[in-house]
Sequence to fold (341 residues):
Amino acid sequence: MKILGIGRALPEQVIANGQLEAILDTLNEWIQSRTGIRERRVLKTHSLTDLALSAAKEAISDAGLTGEDIGLILVATTLGDYLFPSIASLIQADLGASCPAMDLHAACAGFIYALDTADAYIRSGKAQNVLIVGAEAITRLADWEDRSTCVLFGDGAGAMVAGPGDGLLSTHLTAQTNSDVLYSMAPPGNCPFTQAPQNASGGLKMKGQDVYRYAVTRSAEDLEIVVNEAGLEISQIDWFLLHQANRRILDAVRARLSLPAGKLPSNIHRTGNTSAASIPLLMHELYHAGLLKEGQLIAMSAFGAGLTSGACVLRWDKAPPETLTLADDLFPLSQQPTPTT
Ligand code: ACO
Fold:
């Protein structure tokens, strides 16, 4: 497969760290120094379905296609507006599509899982063009009384359309059972014959340091595996797009693989951790800044609850957009690369 189109949608409401200081025992300085996050977007009035739809429409239009051309809709999400129907089903009609549609849940690694699934459908000939959306309203799942986790997250949606091509050079997915270090329990329901689990409690629970160790080790290893499987060296990769979970995780992976800071864009300071939406949101910014050039090699890596992880190497095959939206803060740790003119 190759990427034909890309889109994104962010909620309008910006919540800066200072606003969290007003409702939590926290400090902007603590959040910025531990995570790199300055602000995040939080859904207020719009539904997550609307956000996913908006990103999907932009990606389909950017690919020069219509909804009728889409053979499969995949939405990577932790939790949509409904437990069912899926977001994918809910956006299908508005896109003018009539293809199969499903949500895919692999937490923060969901977008890479969806890319790999899209590739399998395209390779097998079961679908020609696949719409892949990463859409998350993870702030709804956060426990807003737990200052160590709720400050990390933001909402958003990013989308891509994949079609036949030879852009995806390698993928590697992993899963290892662990419901202890990062989880959020499903609502227990009110069936009079069922006993709620003893540890049933709302909100997202995380052992931050365990997740940090997992993320850094897994991501560095996954990147080495996919680069090697693609028959390449780490030094040949032009861009490393990592799940924007935490600036410290990005720094640690960069140090472990000796990556130049100028190859590791980051927007976490503006978005927070948007889970499955984070990689397509970052790629959208890089593309619209004119920094993605045809033929360049991109290595992606994401990791999250499950524990799951996914990585891939993609050769970019798409001409830059006609109008550039320069983002002068995509490389907070380094000098700016030169945009395509
Ligand atoms: N504001 C102020 N102080 C805080 C806050 C806050 N928001 N949160 C925690 N603290 C305090 C704690 O109470 C503690 O105080 P104490 O020493 O008096 O007891 C102190 O800060 C240190 O707390 P730790 O939990 O040990 O903080 P840590 O240095 O581990 O940082 C963090 C927490 C940022 C979550 C870190 O563990 C981390 O980076 N983990 C990676 C996990 C991650 O980023 N997950 C993202 C979501 S999952 C995913 O996408 C894969």
